[in-house]
Each structure stands twice: as C-alpha cells, then as structure tokens.
Design a protein that fits this description.
heterodimer; A: about 425 residues; alpha/beta; Rossmann fold; Cytochrome-c3 Hydrogenase, Chain A, domain 2; 3 domains; five-stranded parallel β-sheet; two-stranded antiparallel sheet; B: about 260 residues; mainly alpha; two-stranded antiparallel ribbon; about 60% helix; elongated
Amino acid sequence: MEYDRRSLFARALGHTKELRTTEDEALALQRACEARLREVEAMEPLSGLELAPLLTEHKLSRRAFIAWTSAMTAALMLPPLLRPQVAKAATLLNRIPVIWIEGQDCAGNSEAFIRSSGPTVEELLFQTISLEFHETLMAAAGIQAEQRKQQAAQMYKGSYILVIEGGIPLGENGGYCTIGASGQTFVDEVRELSGGAALVLAAGACAFYGGIPASNPNPTDAVGVSSVVSGKPLINIPACPMNPVNFVGTLIHYVLTGSAPALDSLGRPIWAFGNLIHNNCERRAHFDAGEYVQHWGDAGAQNNFCLYKMGCKGPFTYNNCSIVRYNEGTNWPIGVGHGCIGCSQPQFWDTLAYERPMTNASIHAPGLAGWGVESSVDEFGLGLLAVVGVGIVAHAIASAAAGHRARQTEPPAAEVGAASTEDHQDTGGEE
Amino acid sequence: MSKKELELRPGTGPTADDQPVVQVVRVPRMTATWRAIHWFQALAVVVCFITGLYIANPYYSPNPTRIDAATYFMAWNRAIHFYGALVLDVSMFLIAYLYVFSTKHRDITDLRPSPENLTEFKEALLNFVTFNRRKRLDTSKRDPFLAVLFLIFHLIMLTQLLTGFQLYVASYSANISAVGSWWPWLLHFVTDWTLTVFGGNVGVRETHLVTAWIIIAWAVFHIYYEIWRSIMWKEGDIVISFGGYKYVKRSGTKHV
C-alpha cells in the first residue's frame, strides 16, 4: 500500500495542507496570473524595446527562450502549468518603470547582468525593462542625468520599482557618499526615491546589510536598505554579486502577481533563498562521506572533495547558486574549487568569509556588543578547561593544606563531636 | 530513615544508662530514575561532544587517494550527534517534569530563596571557598548550593538544546520534513528567537560551539566538587550516582 509518509503525522495533527500544489490550485493561480497579465499588457510599453526582436537579433532561438522560461518557472517554484504565463511576463517587463540607484558599492550587481560571455536572456530582459535611470549605463551625465531622475520619479510616482545597489553610509550625516552634481547624500536620495516607489529592491550584499563597506570597523557607518526605508514593500536580493536570475525572477513574479513574493525573516524571496546552498551542493556526498580538501591542490582537491575544511560556508548560507549557478548556469564558486563565503548572509565579510571552519577561525563574530577576545572557539574552550583545571588543582592543594592544619590543631575526636552536636532534620524518604 | 530508627532502643527515650554513640547511616539520595537520567546524560554529553568536535572541524578523513563511498564519516557523526541530542532532549523534559511534579523530592523546593535555604547556600559556598571545617548545613540532603549548581547546568543545557534545534531546523529544505510541515514549524516557533538574541545563524552556531565547551568545563568541575565533598565530609557523595545512597554520621544513644 502506498502512502505519503510526510502527511501521516501532519494529518494526525490537523495540518492537512499538502506540500504539492493541487491541479485546482494551479489552475486558480494560472487564472489569477492571466488576469494580472492582461492588466499589465494594457499598459503602455515604456522602453520601446520588445523582447522578441531582440532575441532574434541576438540569435537566441525560440527553443532557448522556452528552455529559459521552463528554468525560470521551476526556479520560482511555480507549477509547470504556468510556463506560458512566465514567458508572457518576460515579454511584458518593458511596461514596468525601473529606477536604479547606486551608493557605496562596486557596481558588481550591474556588472553581473552586462558582463556575461554572450547576451543571455537575463541581459536582454535587462535591456527591455524600462530603465529610467541607471548611472553606470545611461548616456546622460551630471545635471542632465539628475533631471532625468527627477522627471522619471515624478512621471511614474507610485508605480516605479526602485532598485538600490550599494550600502548606505550614515556617518557624517551621510556625507561619505554624495551623488551627482548637486551633491545630495545617498541616504537622502534613497529616502526621497523610496517615497514614490511601488516596490523597493535591495540588489546585492551591500544594499542588503551594508556589505563590505559595513564590515568591521565600518568607518562610514554603512547600513543596508532595510535600515533606512520603511513603510514600503522591500525585497532583499543579496549575494556578491546577486544572481541575475534572482533579480529577473523577482521582477517576473511582480509582473505575474503584482505583489512581492513570499519572503523569509531577512526579507529575501523564499523561492531563491529558501534552501541552504549545502543541501543541493554537487559536493554534498563528499561532505557526508567525510572526504575533504585538506590543502589547496591536494589529492582531495583534484577529486572535487568537499571544501568544508577549507572554510566553505555552504552549510550556513541560504541561496540557490548550487542550483542555478552563475552566467547562464556555467559555473559557481564551489564548482571551480573554492568554498562558499556566505555572501548572501548578513555581515558575511566579518563572520563567514575565511578559509577555515568557523571553530578554527580566530575571528570574533560581531554580535556580543564588541565583547570578546579574538580567539577561535576551540582556543576559548581549551582555555576555559585550562582555567578550570588550574583552579581545581589550586583548590585541591589549598583544601588539603587547610585540612592538614585543622588536623594538627584539633583532636581527632573533634570532628565526630561536631557532627554529633549538630541538630539535623530527618533525611528519610529523600527524593 | 528517622531519628527513632537511629536509636537502638526505640520508644523509651534516653535514660541515665544511655550513652551517646555515632552511627553511620545510609541515606537515599538518587532514585533509579534520577540515576538513569544522570548516566544517560553523561554518556550523551560525551558522545555529543566528540561527534560535535568532528562536525565543527572534521579531524579524521579517509585516505583521499582511495575513494570509498562506504565511509560516510560525517553522516555517521551527525547521526550519532543527533541521537545523543535526542537523549538529552528527552532527559531534559523528564528533569523539567521532576523539578516540579516529582512525588519524592521536588528540586524546585531547594531553589526557594527561604532564609534556611539562603543560609545553607552560604555555608556550602563558604565551605568550598574558605576551606572552613564547620558544618552548618544538612549534608545528607541535596543542599541549595548543589541545587543552584544543577540549575546552572540545566540552563546551559537548555541553551545548547535551543541553539541545537535552531541549527537543525536551518538545514530543512523549504520547511519540508519527513513527518510533515508541523515539525519544522514547531522548531522555528520555539527557537527562532535565538537568531535575534545570539546574532543570526552565525551567532547561534558560535553559541552552540562555545556552550559545548562550557558544558564540559561544568562536568569537570562537577566531578571535582563531588570528589572534594567526599573527601571533605567523608560521606561517600561520589557513590550517590552509582548506588543511589550516601552515608552520613548520625548521633544516637545506646542503652548499656
């Protein structure tokens, strides 16, 4: 007899929700998405670019596009039934105005889109979206660029998606990062533009938690978008750089549903950040087998063994890079032989990015209000045991000496006498 | 055991012919249940510590030139670590129950800050730190000083269990488990606050690793303290966890 083990206890405890989407649910979802897509389609294309001719121009076949939409549907954890809707949403991305601003960063997230080996579907989509403002990519500069930003923010007020790349320095009243000819601080720019946005996307590790600029000692007092923007739907898409798949997927989800996807406690889309890298890692079997790279280039490294002992933080890091990889699925850090540095986790540079297991790293993780010495966990533990051991020996010697003195000064019977004069309570029936 | 039983000629009370005597009596201290909990915990702590050290930083590996799929060192270490943790979880539930609802002795009564308890706590502490020989507490029962030591241990263990469960549930894929979604939901519900308190999953992991050493340090101290008490009062404290009894000197009278 066949049965679903997962639901046995679930049923007993009243949790009847099936883990698999039923056909009815999928059809209902499909109908809802179609209604939303009709709304978006009725909107005016803003960028003037359509995806279909771009795909033809760059010799990306229909088959390649269908493969991409299938992968995206799977990545978004949608039922396969919705693949046509995902394809449709991709062609309608040109209806959504996007304002992209950059602060304390390396522009790596923009680079991740535009510096692939050939034009990828993501890159072409990036061209079709109505990118109203992007300092790195736009032709305008200086005052003209700023005017364009103001114009776009006014024209699409309440409907544009604000993408923020980079950390936001708060030190010196935000003076560590000023933008444009007027010298507006980045924190002011973020506050101003997020006010009129329909949705705010924090792109990359720096926008997520301040990233590398916020690493210890954080001289500019950099923070992530969530510390500045409030009262707006905010989606964090961390990693260094963020995976274009996760960015485009989030946009497609928005076009499909008109809302933010389900988020985890750190504001990251669960469809992309719901799993530990470790759980789907191609080297996971070596982890379980205890087969580790011990030194760079050793026999283990040549056999693609697990990189845990070289400091891989895949077991601590939520992201989908072990599934979707980077650059059209070409490869990813663990695939090329370096451990994960946990770049989609908060404060990763301080707490995860070292080439040793955590227990062996002499880096004090921030979080105890700066308290603590720089020692590894095992050094701390052995130190603690040493202190206890020394204390025990010292106590034992002192106690023995005190006992010796007591025996010399008091007659042997005194101990018995003392005990016999005590008035103890009954001890019967103890415990 | 009562005072009456101590008297070799009970019922008549002391007379002019009675002589004071000192007698060694056996006092029950740990029931079979408590001893079972004690030794299961001791074993589980050692097992979890050894396997935990491996999980944190694997210190042995198969020969890398011989790929042998049958080893599964890490998988076994993790499995045994989880079995050990399971023993500790269940025993902690039992302890929590016995603290409050034991029919024999409710440990929670030793923790009441009553004047007697406070005095006994102070006296036991002074015994230990000043090496005085005075005995102004009832060493035959579990004194408040011991009760506080064990409370500290149980709180450390609780930290370890909660951080451990948080690390455990972190590895669930999209909150799917073999027994249904209620299980990861429950673990998240009970332990997610540790993320806020200890600083994300890095802080929780670090706390779990540090707490493991604190537990071992506590255990070392515990063994020493029991040995020290055994030598100090000569009442056989160290054998309580084996036989369940300790042996105290009782004064009584003997009719001649």
